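Researcher: Watch the backbone:
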Amino acid sequence: TWSIAKSSCQEQGAFLATILTADENSFVASLLREGGKTSAWIGVNDHVTQDHYVWVDGSPIAFTNWSGGTPPTDANKNFGRIDDRGAWLTDLDQFISWPYVCK
């Protein structure tokens, strides 16, 4: 789950990945493809305030690459992931076990 991924990164002295530029986004997507993965948790979320996405480390969100061009508004899907094309999506935390990227 996203929460487990977040904790695992923190145990390693890191955070779930913040993606601050298009180059970083492309790099993370390429890592997924090279590893044969289709998606992975990243640090973007809106679980504190609905529809107000933030990075888990407190960094401002300047760059985005939401699938469809805008952040999702599904109240039940609060935790961000990136797919192997570089698109950002959200999922339910308690039911999904994706790989994750720490930074």
